[in-house]
Sequence to fold (938 residues):
Amino acid sequence: MTDAAQNTGPMMAADGTTLKSSLNRALRRQKLRALMLIAPLLIFVLVTFIAPIADMLFRSVENQIVSDTLPSTTDALKDWDSSAGDIPAPEVFDALYTDVFIAQERKLHTRLGSRLNYELTGVSSLFRKSGRKVEDMGEVYQDQFEDLNPFWKDAENWNALMGSDAWLGAQNAWDPKSETAQPAFELREEIVGLLPQTAEVFEIFADFVQNERERNLAKTDPWALVYSAFYDDLRREPDVSSYGGTGAAEMLEAMAAVSSFETVDTTAAFADIDKDWHDVEVWQTIQTYSPHFTSGYFLNAVDMKKSADGPEMRPDNEQIYIKLFVRTLFMSLVITGSCILLGYPVAWILANLPARTANLLMILVLLPFWTSLLVRTSAWKVMLQQQGVINDTLVWLGLVADDSRLALINNQTGTIIAMTHILLPFMILPLYSVMKTIPPSYLRAAKSLGATNWTAFWRVYFPQSVPGIGAGSILVFILSIGYYITPELVGGTTGTFISNRIAYHISSSLNWGLAAALGAILLAVVLGLYWAYDKIVGIDNVKLGG
Amino acid sequence: MAALTPISRTPVSFYVPMVAAAGAFAGLLVGTAQGSSFIGIVVGALLMGALAFAMTQLVTAEKPVRWALTLLLAVAGFAMAGLAAGIIGALFGWFFGWFTFWLFEGRYRAYVAPYLTAGQVLWHYTFRVICGAILVFLITPILVVMPLSFNAQDFFTFTPEMLRFDPAGYSLKHYEDFFTNSDWQGALANSVKIAPMATLLSVSFGTLAAIGLSQQHVPFRRAIMAILISPMIVPLIISAAGMYFFYSRIGLQGTYMGVVLAHAALGIPFVIITVTATLVGFDNSLTRAAANMGAGPVTTFFRVQMPLILPGVISGGLFAFITSFDEVVVVLFVGSAGQKTLPWQMFTGLREQISPTILAVATILVIISIALLTVVELLRRRSERLRGMSPA
Fold:
């Protein structure tokens, strides 16, 4: 009975480990091998397809352009109470001056203008105008400093004042004709403490000249903005006498003179450029869109907008997207319905004819399925025109008068006819494969039990074909809801879908955020349907071409 | 199909009114075209009723009578409005000859169950006519495009010359334009450069993954499948938008590589679906047998597995190819003018400068798709035979 004691222990595999762990290891190896085979494709799809979709979703909430272009203005605006009805404090306008000045040098102000124009009409021209005139504000100071002492005119003097000794040495040693990079600008430590604003602006200027324009800093005169910052710094009366480097004397002289300088009131100056700058709504818009992320695009996509007191509907005459979504859904439903109506009889006859005939007729279904989408769309464009084949035939038959030809194209009718034709095979094929499995004897049994043709069909056959209808409908609906080409070509203005609007925002109006938000909503609808399709049919059961 | 019901001749009171009704309908069409529907109906009904009576009661030989009717109507049509009308007349004649005898001899009853009532027989045939009409709807656009592509004019409609079958109304000039115009040739060259590359990528990755997916134990199988199928489900405009944004970030927008990658991604679901379908019912003992006889995994794959799943791989590849070859939305966004493909050129052609060359291109594409359809169908049958799923 020693064997019995051994048998109670775990079973052993040949290599001495327990059978369980040995089997587990084999299973793990199998799983790993399967994953290794899948991995290349999975990574490929993740990079080329899923990442772009994720990027699009990100874009629909991303809103860094406002705070990136107007960093100090959005900072200063944080404490502004938009509901009070007053325009922001003068500091905000000072910040705006700095931001717009830098933005127009970088040519970013028009982009920001068009971004904010999506939210409030007119902002685009406001920024464009301000970009052109903002330089004048700084030049008031620039002229006065230069009149005071020609020292301030020269780029080299400014560099000597602002730059650190180490950088100055490197810059002087650098040969502009050589291939090597320009030595990166470094601020002089004492100046940062003495003239903080000037230092900050000058650093941005130096970075812009060296890295974006790729010009020689030693030969580039500073922006007018540097002079106004310099003025502001001097007005704060820093301890200039502690500085002893280049330009110390000139700085002392300037310091004494600034109190009698002509000044610029930025608040009034911006109002001179455009009185809209004193419009509270403009400032509300800037404040509302200051955060890095916004729900603004999504609100826009459902005809709402952000306002001081939370989201609200747009005025009736600006509401287009809900109407467009409803139209897309409605037309997709009509197309799905007509596909069921036309597809059901054909699938039935294909499933019930003898195999040889059915195969021949199947070619008539598969041929359009395999034919290029553009070929079919162009065929419909040719047939549906005012002078097209269908109208010609109707006129020839006398059913329609020559002067009242039917408008079949560039409207909803055109889209529905063409898309029903294009998507019909997607309805027939799943219906056919389901009907193939319904035994014809059921119908005969029903009839022999006394059912009429209609009862036999409605009570016996139809319920069994419902899965096919479900599969086909979801497929057709998913495909039609996101269709772009056919509505674009035969839909005119009234027969277009939401996808046409998305394309318009990407390529014409360049409102990418709104396009992404509309796309995200559409994607959510489609994924919901996809999930339903998976539950009803299972993605493994998708069949292609019978 | 064997006859189900014994047939007998029907009484005059049945078939003559039926043929007369059909004649009235034909008369309506011809009459409206000539100016008076009412006269058309009356003449059509009387003429066809009388002819049906004469054909069956006065003459008894079926074949000569039917030929004679065809000829008679052809000549009548030709006399009225030339060659085209003559052909239509001949078709009418053939149809009425067949229809008269079909009813007269009771042949319509032969292939339906004997217990059906008259109403049910009528419904049976009405249903077939409806199905026929739907199938015609499916195929008409293609049939209309083909003859129109030979139009000698720059019109998108049948000219009177074409309807008269006048050779002057037809020409090959749109085909000539397609083969000589540098825009179209450039687009064709781009399509030919992009599609095979994209197909190669999706087939090679897709086949490997499909084999992996059909193993017995695959963790997260459903999730992986959902991701791999998603390019087929996500609306093209969304894929295009996403790719446009993302590819411009990483500098692939407007490059050949970008379009190829995008098209490969779109083709992958088709490869996955067809190849996994072939692998269902793949006998895994074959690979074990190969391993048993000393073949490494690579040899097993190429010598045992590959030949068996090749039909699926090829038809998946064809699907991927046609996806890329036919794709326009993504290439519109991801590509630049340098990657203008044939569908893109057709799209701009349809939207802006509408030119009949499009119809010539369409005809060529239809012929290509017929060829591809044949290949896929043959492969499907071969694959089923190889796997023993249907008799040879």
Observations:
- Chain B has a mean pLDDT of 85.
- The longest helix of chain B spans residues 62-104.
